[in-house]
Amino acid sequence: MGSPLPPSAVRVATILFQNGSAELDGSDRRVLKKVRNIYRQQGGRLRVVGHSSSRTRNMDPVRHKMVNYRISADRANVVIAALKRLGVSSNDITADARADASPLYFEYMPSGEAGNRRAEIYFE
C-alpha cells in the first residue's frame, strides 16, 4: 500500500471492473481521455489507486490477501498504461494498490461488491 493521499487530492474519475478483471472497455477509455484532457490543461500529478472487492474463491487467508492485492495493482497499472498511451508523462503518474482495504460499499449485495472493484484517479 502506498502513502495516504494528501488532503488536497481531488478524485476526478473512477473506473469500474468486472469480477477478477483488469480490462478496460471503450467507455473506460473515453473517461481516460477526459482525464488526459484535464491533465493537459492543468498539469499536475496523478495517482491511480486500485481496489478489489473482498470476495475470492475459497482459499487460505494469506492467499486471499495476495490475490486481492495483485488484482488491485493490476487495475491501477492498466489505467496508468492507458494514460501513458494517451500522452500523460510517466513522471507525473504514481500507482497505489489497496486490495480490499478501502471499500466504498457494503458487499452484502452484488452491487456493493461491483462498486468496490475499481480504480480511482486523483489529481494531487
What structural keywords apply?
four-stranded mixed β-sheet; alpha+beta; 60s Ribosomal Protein L30, Chain: A
Could you characterize what this model shows?
The chain is α+β, with helices and mostly antiparallel strands. The chain has one domain: 60s Ribosomal Protein L30, Chain: A (2-Layer Sandwich), CATH 3.30.1330.60. 40% of the residues lie in helices and 19% in strands. The protein contains three helices and four strands; from the N terminus they run βαβαβαβ. It has a four-stranded mixed sheet. The two termini are 17 Å apart. The relative contact order is 0.30. The model has no long low-confidence stretch (mean pLDDT 91).
What's the layout of helices and strands?
Blueprint: E1 10-16, H1 26-42, E2 46-50, H2 61-85, E3 93-97, H3 110-116, E4 118-123
Parallel strand pairs: 2-3
Antiparallel strand pairs: 1-4, 2-4
Summarize, please.
It contains three helices and four strands; from the N terminus they run E-H-E-H-E-H-E. It is α+β, with helices and mostly antiparallel strands.
